[in-house]
Write a structure and sequence with these properties.
CATH topology: Thiol Ester Dehydrase, Chain A
Distance between the termini: 25 Å
Mean pLDDT: 94
Strand order of the largest sheet: 1-2-4-5-6-3
Number of domains: 1
CATH architecture: Roll
Number of helices: 3
Number of strands: 6
Radius of gyration: 14 Å
CATH superfamily: Hotdog Thioesterase
Helix content: 10-25%
CATH class: Alpha Beta
Structural class: alpha+beta
Shape: globular
């Protein structure tokens, strides 16, 4: 993984071009044997009307990093990954700065995968806890 780290991150960031991920300025910043990490700026573009991070933006970040992690950690590159269920608990608000989403696999099945995505602020305080189920569709 260490030798391929830069290549993996470059590939993840490249697929964001002209997508929701680019619109939300999501950037993949780290990968290890256990997790994929992305960051997203928190500013007025992702605020709800009262000036804090919109839960929908958090969920979009979580599904983006979880789905990318499923592709990265799934050894068969002949699959398409889709999110099929997502749930989120938002526990702390944030008005500005960055949030970081850390996707870790809970279950890595051949067809379905279960991911836990922690979204934290720059002080590593929990903002949202997300559970994502992905499916691997064989081409």
């Amino acid at each position: 993984m260490k030798n391929n780290k830069e290549a993996i991150l470059a590939a993840c960031n490249a697929i964001c071009k002209n997508t929701l991920m680019e619109t939300l300025e999501i950037e993949f910043i780290d990968v290890s044997e256990e997790e994929l990490i992305a960051k997203m700026p928190v500013n007025s573009r992702v605020h709800q009307p009262d000036g804090v991070l919109h839960g929908g933006a958090s969920v979009a970040l979580a599904e983006s990093v979880g789905s990318a992690a499923a592709f990265v950690f799934f050894k068969n590159k002949e699959v398409s990954i889709r999110g099929i269920e997502i749930s989120a608990n938002h526990v702390k608000g944030i008005k500005e700065g960055f949030v970081f989403a850390r996707a870790k696999v809970v279950h890595k099945g051949r067809t379905t995968q279960l991911w836990q995505i922690r979204i934290e602020n720059e002080a590593e305080e929990l903002i949202s806890m997300v559970k994502l189920t992905t499916i691997s569709l064989y081409n």
